[in-house]
């Protein structure tokens, strides 16, 4: 929740703080896309760790990162009120750095998996609290834009994996990712702590300094006593009205906000984003495209970065609902086309040489459309739909559930592929996109430019 409603000048500290905090999302993105260039190397006879992995072992290496995210989400949720967002961010940077060091020096499956799980701990913590931090420091008029930045930075991390990973050695790529984690750890020390957290700790002077930094523009650094008083009132209300599981289950606005986020996160993840990103080079290798898998995956990565940054500029202008409907519809059509190609090629054994451009084209259109809104929508909603007293518990539930979803998506990719083929996978993903269209159009409230109180009133409405 945010009450930092000040001048229309550019609040550069809010932008910088969001970008720096989101470097953790970039580290998470490199960890996800690491699988795409690395799995083919690890399963080859010339494995960079000295041990050739089976496809089953490789699927565990790919999925153990989100597996580590599950306890990471829980640990971040229970420690947030004690040490705050900023300190958790720094701990995440240390874990990411440790993870990449272990991956770099790996000479066995055990060491490789250990490094990936440690990175997952950091990723789970990031996904639980990053959007809460952004929501607490952002002005209402740029809240949607800033809420997209973590996803945008994650896409930049994915691009690094897809654009650099195939062209450098296994160890060199890990070192590059370690440098990102190091930069994250150093820069995050300079961002302001959330004024909400400081007020909860009865550090009013520190909260005032943090608030003054956050509302600073390129032309002024005026204090905003009204905002500080509103934060104080919010914290007092939260203290008097302790949030409990009973409230979550009984009161409509709490239940509705959590259900909205859980459903849209489920549909977003089962649209295939994480699974495809982890195996994009494998998919492209099977497509018989005239482009090499390495070049095609680079194009795929560039498109998703361009799309997510476009989303940052469109979301507060077009609105969440229209953008999400277009995003889901375009992604569904692209996935259906991808499924049809592999069905004709692998099941009907029809000559598809004249259409070898289609898999790369459809995959790029899919990434363009899904990154436009559907992939980032759950994280935007986390920063908007949860009331201030419910944020910490709901974020803990959301982070843990998200980690389980990611693990499930990546782990089941290979078994479904071997049992039913690429076409079945892509059609499952497209069905999820179609369901997302229905859900967003019928049930999701539009939150563009609406205050948090008005959003809560909508969620509490019996209609």
From TrEMBL:
<feature type="transmembrane region" description="Helical">
    <location>
        <begin position="60"/>
        <end position="80"/>
    </location>
</feature>
<feature type="transmembrane region" description="Helical">
    <location>
        <begin position="296"/>
        <end position="315"/>
    </location>
</feature>
<keyword id="KW-0762">Sugar transport</keyword>
<keyword id="KW-1133">Transmembrane helix</keyword>
<keyword id="KW-0812">Transmembrane</keyword>
<dbReference type="InterPro" id="IPR005829">
    <property type="entry name" value="Sugar_transporter_CS"/>
</dbReference>
<feature type="transmembrane region" description="Helical">
    <location>
        <begin position="257"/>
        <end position="276"/>
    </location>
</feature>
<dbReference type="GO" id="GO:0005886">
    <property type="term" value="C:plasma membrane"/>
</dbReference>
<feature type="transmembrane region" description="Helical">
    <location>
        <begin position="322"/>
        <end position="344"/>
    </location>
</feature>
<dbReference type="Pfam" id="PF00083">
    <property type="entry name" value="Sugar_tr"/>
</dbReference>
<feature type="transmembrane region" description="Helical">
    <location>
        <begin position="117"/>
        <end position="134"/>
    </location>
</feature>
<keyword id="KW-1003">Cell membrane</keyword>
<dbReference type="InterPro" id="IPR036259">
    <property type="entry name" value="MFS_trans_sf"/>
</dbReference>
<feature type="transmembrane region" description="Helical">
    <location>
        <begin position="87"/>
        <end position="105"/>
    </location>
</feature>
<keyword id="KW-0472">Membrane</keyword>
<dbReference type="InterPro" id="IPR050549">
    <property type="entry name" value="MFS_Trehalose_Transporter"/>
</dbReference>
<feature type="transmembrane region" description="Helical">
    <location>
        <begin position="12"/>
        <end position="34"/>
    </location>
</feature>
<feature type="transmembrane region" description="Helical">
    <location>
        <begin position="356"/>
        <end position="381"/>
    </location>
</feature>
<dbReference type="GO" id="GO:0022857">
    <property type="term" value="F:transmembrane transporter activity"/>
</dbReference>
<feature type="transmembrane region" description="Helical">
    <location>
        <begin position="146"/>
        <end position="164"/>
    </location>
</feature>
<protein>
    <recommendedName>
        <fullName>Major facilitator superfamily (MFS) profile domain-containing protein</fullName>
    </recommendedName>
</protein>
<feature type="domain" description="Major facilitator superfamily (MFS) profile">
    <location>
        <begin position="10"/>
        <end position="448"/>
    </location>
</feature>
<dbReference type="InterPro" id="IPR005828">
    <property type="entry name" value="MFS_sugar_transport-like"/>
</dbReference>
<feature type="transmembrane region" description="Helical">
    <location>
        <begin position="393"/>
        <end position="413"/>
    </location>
</feature>
<dbReference type="InterPro" id="IPR020846">
    <property type="entry name" value="MFS_dom"/>
</dbReference>
<feature type="transmembrane region" description="Helical">
    <location>
        <begin position="170"/>
        <end position="191"/>
    </location>
</feature>
<keyword id="KW-0813">Transport</keyword>
<feature type="transmembrane region" description="Helical">
    <location>
        <begin position="425"/>
        <end position="444"/>
    </location>
</feature>
